[in-house]
Amino acid sequence: MSTILIVMSAADTWVRNDGSAYPTGYWAEELAAPHKIFVDAGHTVDFASPGGVLQPLDKHSADPAIAGEDCGQYVEHAEKALAAFGPLLRLSDVALDDYDAIVLPGGHGPVVDLFEDRDLGRLLLGADDAGKLIGAVCHGPAALLSAVDDAGEWRFAGRRLTAFTDEEEEMFGTAEGAPWLLASRLRERGALHEGGAAYQAYSVRDGNLFTGQNPASSAPMANAIVEALAS
């Protein structure tokens, strides 16, 4: 069986263009659904973040009116999984050789810190060099932006991927005032961004890179990673 590293943001606030603070945290389904799928398949899962900080739950992901009637099960699973793991690993201490895959869930946190985290960038560059599996869902693909090599080249330019779309950001009510929009930024950096219907499951695989568009895409992305690990 394999060992998978789930990398969380450490951010609890997203500062908007007008200087206002938008509370953020991990999105329950995007953490819980992959974790359950990985563990049920017999894999070991570790958690890490910048500084080992435990990010709070994004309360929107616990609201049935926003996250769906079954959101409670994701919140419960995520909280139990994090409590059972204990203190998160510090990204700066992570040894890439210990892992077969790196997975990046969302919430808005990755657009606050992970997109420019040098320790994560080092891990992602090494993982891609070694052909290890890399997964990211919703706003998690923002973290891929950290993978810039010594020549200033972004590793995932020219790669097919998906992420939370500008349309979905607008529908969620967070596009206006956002410092930048994820899908647009990924395209600007050279990614071949693809999008499906808003808030419907949509995932893309490009070699060792697995991405999901939104919370509903968390399980399909995770299942694709499990299938790839098995092969």
From TrEMBL:
Q: Name one GO cellular component term.
A: cytoplasm
Q: Which InterPro entries match?
A: Class_I_gatase-like (IPR029062), DJ-1/PfpI (IPR002818), Prot/Nucl_acid_deglycase (IPR050325)
Which CDD domains does the entry link to? GATase1_Hsp31_like (cd03141)
The GO biological-process annotations, alphabetized, read as: methylglyoxal catabolic process to D-lactate via S-lactoyl-glutathione; proteolysis
Keyword annotations for this protein, in alphabetical order, are: Hydrolase, Lyase, Protease, Stress response
Q: Where is the DJ-1/PfpI domain?
A: 30-227
Of which family is this protein a member?
Belongs to the peptidase C56 family. HSP31-like subfamily.
Q: What is this protein called?
A: Putative intracellular protease/amidase
